[in-house]
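Extended Data, panel c. Modelled sequence:
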Amino acid sequence: MERKPKPNGETRNLIFTGRGGADIIGLWGGDRGVNGEFFGDRGSDWGVGSIANQHLVVNMRTHLHHWMKLNFKPIKADGSRLFVHDEFNFPEEFDHVSDVDITDDVNDEYSTSSTSSTGDSSIPIHSEQVYGGDQTCSSIVEVHSIDGLEVWIPKVRDQVKPIVGQVFQSLDKGIEMYKKYALEAGFDVRLSYVKKNKLLKITLRYVVCNREGIPDPVQTNTLDSTPKKVRTTNIHRCGCRAGVKFKICDDGESFVLYDFEEKHNHSLFDEVSKHLLKSKRKLDYSQQRCYEAHSILCQLRGGYDKVGGTKVEYKNFERDRNCYIGDSDANLFVRKMNNRKLYVPNYSFEYNSDGGLLKYAFWADETAKRNFEEFSDIVSFDATYRTNKYCMIYVPFTRIDNHKNCVTLGTGILDAEDAPAFSWLLEAFIKAFGKQPKLDVMDQCPAIKRAVRDVFKESRHRFCMWHISEKLPSKVKHNVLSNGDFKKRFHALIWDETIDANEFEDRWTSLMTEFDLLGHKWLKYMFKHRNKWIPSFYRDIPMARLMRTTSRPESENGLFSQFFHYGATLMKFIDSFDSAMDKQRNNQRLLNHKTTTTLPKLLTPLPIEYAFHDSRNCPKRQEEEEEEDEE
């Protein structure tokens, strides 16, 4: 069954009744999101027991194929289980349609085809040029649909593809052949089943995709109070059946490949992510010794006497480099950034100088602009970090990505913390990105507030909660803060996203009265401007947890502090900035890789949770659970 395009917002209701008495109502529309809700016949919360007649409401939008992979089968009416997860087709359990006759509507909305167990449709999803040595091949991954299930078949060079009937002089050569094929195809392998004869010689060996097999089912026994080991890592295995099988030949030495399965039930690594394959993450001798420049040269060249210098000479290289730069630091910096603007696609660089002195600069590359397109609703910027020997202020524009990690959207350096400097920076931001964010988060610096008000006229403005929380110890008397109850209740109140504005005001007044702080000057000022920082006044804007976690500015500064140092030249600063961006973006690639190659830890044994596991982000889910534990 293939879905034809529908206008956004339009929905279709399907009601099926199975032999077990379970109704399934499927709704889907054009918006984003995957949500599932359960409703009991009696209007109460549903449980594991006595759930034969529950209604499953699946609100599926845009990504209909998630639901198409599911086959919801009512099992029994005794309350043991409601659904199992299987490949999508309409099983015999859904043997009649009740309440609504939708046959004509479905014929209008869908084109239906009968697919046999061996029939499939092939759709190439991407094609890339892969350059290896002197050979060039077109690496194409095809996605096939077999009985409603997607399978991935890699297209590789013929000379590396396994062939049934191939004979190898030894088992190791056969395994090495399959590893080379897997590396080019984009998946990892592992050794599986082995059979040996009475002489303990291997006669049969399976080599499979490392995502072969399924995790053990979650066992739950509420009567057993003994502590159980809890899995803390994500799950790699998803039941993939790709692999090869070798058996020994009659000569007792060579092995023949007698079975080859090339179809995978999961996506494969693309060229950008292939360096994350386990087979690629192995250090050779020289890489294992790369802990500092002088030591590696000693190891590579065979001794200290072969290097031609001591550690002192290597340290002095930085001194000589700074001497060479001299007074041309700003000129070299501007020239380098202008060259990037000229030769690097979609690179933005703006600067302002006065009397030959560099005052302001702003830059953003294509990746930063793509991040802004994806995560542009809320932007935070902080101007508290000084990065070079000229005491110029480093101002990163930050957003939280889908992994709840900081991503840098754009970067500026300023020689002053005044309104004209910040106004120039925000204008450069708009020029580079083409629009303003929906909400900007800033500290309480008067110059920043004025610049934001004058330039970001279409945005809503909010103070940074982290900076306000940091000021509390210096603003409130020690004898009050020493009372652990006040500090705990104060933070619980200001961070509470569930209460409305009226409830916040009542609880604030009650707290200030109890601790005799109604006349406190700073607290009165913060309460007067409560609509600028309290989450209760921003409930209409998805905060994307940007301000829910207090360590965002601290985390961003922590990243750059690993690379920047106070006495650096501008040339050294930009090199360090590039290194910091490489690390940040590599971490993002690692999390993307983890999300696509692992499954989240399930909290219940219910099949419906497993069925919808891929609609949640694995690293994000783990971090949410950790934050809940901390709270």
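The domain at 328-464+553-585 is CATH 3.30.420.10 (Nucleotidyltransferase; domain 5). This feature is highlighted in the accompanying rendering.
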